[in-house]
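Review session, final week

We close the course with one last complete record, chosen because it touches almost every idea we covered. It is Alpha/beta-tubulin-N-acetyltransferase 9, a protein from Molothrus ater with 208 residues. Go through it on your own first, then we will talk.
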Amino acid sequence: AMKINQDTVLRGKKVTLVPYTAAHVPRYHEWMQSEELQRLTASEPLSLEQEYEMQRSWRDDADKCTFIVLDSERWPGQVEENSMVGDVNLFLTNTEDPTVGEIEIMIAEPSCRGRGFGKEATLLMMVYGVRKLGITKFEAKIGQENEASICMFKKLHFKEVAVNSIFQEVTLRLDVSDQERQWLLEQTDHVEEKSYAELKQPAGVLDT
């Protein structure tokens, strides 16, 4: 089950990935009121209650893995809700082939776009998918007008494999050969994996 990552923190230089919990929902819900984000993520606005239900399904579904993206400069230190910049997801939707993961990244905070946050968050998620979930093929489906995102995935060695003119989306794909795996590990060799429960504890609480 996807509870595999419920105590996992992946700490990179710019971003830190933490499990998506109920505490993140209000901020996430606020983001998703943005028409621009609804368009870019092809999603409908949900009520706050529906958003909490979604968060629960993300936590419990065996075919989804999600992390909230935090700004490494702000967390730990600031409240998580104030450090949130977006989210990154993996869907294991191919029943024929469990080694295929569809990856999605959203940097929702406008001030954090174009700063390499999305790229690092995507790399962290890919390496997690390869090492922990046995993923050997990644796919990304991106709206045709989202050029920044398409460009970023191409920098991460994804190749365009299909264009769907009805949904106006481009499918990009990356097969993780030994060479690609090596490259991914090199790109993320600075990453630390930590326990979420331990990091959330304020310093000193554990000494009593």
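Two points worth writing down before the exam:
The chain is about 35% helix and 25% strand.
The first helix runs from residue 25 to 31.
Good luck, everyone.
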